[in-house]
Each structure stands twice: as C-alpha cells, then as structure tokens.
Write the structure tokens for this entry.
Amino acid sequence: YGRFWRRYPIPEGEDVLEGEWWPTNQEKWMDKAERQYNLQDEEIREGISRWINEEDGRKTFDQIQYAIDTLNGDHPYRGPESRRIIINAWHPANAAVSKLPPCHFTWVMNVQNGKLNTHLTQRSGDTALGIPFNIAAYALITKIIAKQTDFEPGTFSHTIVDSHIYCGKGERGEWYQENIEKFREKMREASDREEYLDIKEWIEKEAPDEKEGEENFDHIPNLLKQLSREPRERPEMHLPEKSIDELEYKDFQLEAYDPYGGLEFSVAE
C-alpha cells in the first residue's frame, strides 16, 4: 500500500483505531487473522474456524469456504456486497522456484443485481488447449458457488495477459516466422468460415511437414478447422442439491451436448 491508501506513518500504541492493522515482520497475515478471530465470541469463532485448517501440521486457509460464507452472509463483518471476495493461487515464493507456476491464478467474485459474476485473471494461456478448459472450469465453479449461495450465475469475464498459439517445431516453426505477414493478411481478408479452410490448405501445401513424433505441435491448422465450424446450441449443466464438499464427478449432468468431431493438439514442451 502507498501513503494514499493507509494512514501514514503507520500508527502505533494508543493511536491505532479499532480493527486497524498493517502487517509487520513480527506478525504475519495468518497469525493476525487467527489471533483476531480468537478475540470474538464463541459463535463467531465457530463460524470462522471453518476457514483455518491444520493438516499434517501445516496451517491453511480455505478460500472457497471463505467466499461461500461471505456470499451467504455468514462472515461476521462482510456480506455479498463485498468487493473483497478474491481467491488467489499465486504464491510468490513458489513461483520463484516452480517450473510452472499457475497460469490462471486469481479470480474475483462480485454480486450485481442478484447475479454472481466472476472475473478470472490469467498470466499465460495456450489458446488451443488451455484457455477453453479454463473458461469451462471457471464458468462451472461460478455456477456451483451461485447454487450454494442462492444467486443466479451472472457474467464470466476473462483477462489473459499473454495468449499464444503454438506453431510447431524446427523448420515448421521457422516457416511461420518467415511467412507471418502473409498469414496475417490472409486471416484479415477471410470473410466467411469456409475461407479458413482455404488458409489451412495453403499452410499444409506450403509449410514443411512436421517431423515424425512432432505431429500436431503446430496448432494453427486445426484451429483454422475449428474456426470454419458453425457454433451449435450450448449444452446445459445440471447440478444436484449438495454442498460443494460433497460433489462428485458423476453429479455433473451435461445435457443436449452435440459436439463436432475431436481435433488433436499436442501439448507444448
């Protein structure tokens, strides 16, 4: 926080207002939260205790339960109008050493006009393989939490900082680098879905073949095929009357799903 968003200098002793606190090196966020909750009456402590868990000697905070309780009005200080219903998977210390820290790492839930909206922020996204699953997963979790909290599912919004398409290895990838402007021009000039298949045919004719064992690392041809398809009616997802902790894979019923044939994309290494 800068000076505009907190009292400066940080007050101490008798100058500290009730409920005011800023982290220091001596007192971490989790310690402060636990200490403050323990000061509350027994009923509040019982409710809040669902957020702090200890497994294998490690202390964790249940962000999902915290969000559901806040939306249900079971938070002692905040309700569904809160602008602080945020779930975050980004751990700076882990990100510093992890080979692959979370791509989709934080999402905010917000209630407007009785509808639960979700905004997902994603640092990096594989357009062919990752992003479609991210959209489906967070739309589904929005629907699940909306059902748990008696809100209607609202709008899913998605910010992707770096969205990318893989275009093959070796000579295949180099060909795109040499012909990127021509490819972009063809994409700009496409006026109907069938023309995407013409671009796909041009690539398959002009670009070097993918080597054995490297098939489908070039995602562009099958993405062009996907673009050529007319979208069909959306299916419906039905959920049972269960708490989020009791849900199982078999509980999710997808109805009126009418997909096209599958398209193959290899996972980039």
In short: The radius of gyration is 24 Å.
